[in-house]
């Protein structure tokens, strides 16, 4: 993301409901995993796996002292020979139960097989959260959703950064060493404006 897009991000955050919307959604995510303590399952689509969101949530889990935020990335193309953290396949969704949270991230809407798995997980008692373009069937299944319409001021990747930063925000005065949401946004802006790393 270049400096022009970062400037747009700052303008958008100051002038719209995006900041409030991402904080509300992140609050629902954090509240679900903290109160239930059953784990966070993160899944995308066959074409889009939310690697970056998984990595940022792992960071936020460490920074906020909330290990429940560290997700299990559920992959469509997982193989038994993959490293353990990348080897969790869609069969994990069939085992989702009450107390677990399922976050579905999809830029174009999930396919029918994924929708069926999400529906089954919800029927088994899992809390379902949806982040994407607002696909009707998924939104109707979700306990909480954040819609990122095509052509909106922010793209899905940027919204995922905001959600992960807000999810790590502590609702009470932060203990020493914990970062506030404003600090996380500042760090995010710095990351987005930094020059690309040199290629070896």
TrEMBL record:
InterPro entries: SIS_dom_sf. This is SIS domain-containing protein.
